[in-house]
Amino acid sequence: QVQLVQSGPEVKRPGASMKVSCKASGYTFTGYYMHWVRQAPGQGLEWMGWINPYSGATNYTQKYQGRVTMTRDTSISTAYLELSSLRSDDTAVYYCTREVYFHHWGQGTLVTVSS
Amino acid sequence: DIQMTQSPSSLSASVGDRVTITCQASQDITKYLNWYQQKPGKVPKVLIYDASNLETGVPSRFSGSGSGTDFTLTISSLQPEDIATYYCQQYDSVPLTFGGGTKVEIK
Q1: pLDDT per residue as tens, chain B (107 positions)
Q2: Is B101 in a helix, a strand, or coil?
Q3: CB neighbours (10 Å) of residue B104?
Q4: Do residues B53 and B106 touch, judged by C-beta distance below 8 A?
Q5: Which of 88-107 (A) contact B at CB < 8 A?
Q6: Which sign does the torsion angle of CA A50, B49, B18, B16 carry?
C-alpha cells in the first residue's frame, strides 16, 4: 500500500533553514508528482508547490519563491522540502501529498520557529 | 490565482440533520475539486474527488456535486464522528488553492 513517511519535528531559530523529508513506498516514486502543503497552527491549508520526481522539475507558489527548494533522491524514493530564512510565521505542520487526487498524505512534520 | 470561497465558515447541527457546505471558485475549474475532512491533530482525508466521486471507504452519507464554479458537499445525516473541519481544494491550475474551511459541530 502507498505510504508517505515524513521526518520528525524540528525546532529552528529565526533566519535558519529547515529540511523535511518524505519517504515514499508502495508505488513507483517517479510516476507521480509530489506536492507540499503547510498548515499554520489553527489555520487552513496552504499549497506550497510540487516536484516531478522523474525529471526533478518544480513549480513553487509565488509566495515562497526564493526561499523554497524541492528536491528528490530517486535512489531512496524520497522527496525533500527546504525552506530558508525562517520566520516565526513559518511555524506550521508541513505535509507531503501525492497526486493523483491527493489521496495519500504524509503524517505531517511540525516545524517550530522560535528564538 | 483561483480563489475558493467556502461557506459557511462554521455550522452547528443536530445528529441526523442534512448538512450542506458550498464552495465557489473565482473562475471555471470544470470538475477539478476535492473535498477533505480534517479532524483535530489529524491529516486531511479526501472524501470526494473530481467534484462528485466518493473516495473508497468513505460513508455514502457524504456526496459532492457541482461543476464550473459552484460546488456542494452534502452530509445527508450528520453523525457524531463527522465533527471536523471540511475544506475544498481546486486542482485545475497552479497554484492549487483551498477554501478557508468549514468547522462542523454538533448542536
Answers
A1: 999 999 999 999 999 999 999 999 999 999 999 999 999 999 999 999 999 999 999 999 999 999 999 999 999 999 999 999 999 999 999 999 999 999 999 99
A2: coil
A3: 19
A4: no
A5: 95, 101-103, 105-107
A6: negative
Query: CA of A60, closest CA in chain B: separation in Å?
Result: 8
Q: What are phi and psi of A55, to 5 degrees?
A: -100, -20
From the CB of residue B50, how many other CB atoms can be counted at a distance below 10 Å? 15
- Stated length of chain A: 115
The answer to whether B94 contacts A61, with C-beta atoms less than 8 Å apart, is yes
Alpha carbons A97 and A35: distance in angstroms, whole number: 5
> Residues, chain B, total?
107
Contact A45 B55 (CB under 8 A): no
- Whole-angstrom CA distances from B66 to A99, B38, B75, B98 are 22, 22, 15, 16
DSSP conformation letters of B30-76: TT-EEEEEE-TTS--EEEEETTTEEPTT--TTEEEEEETTEEEEEES
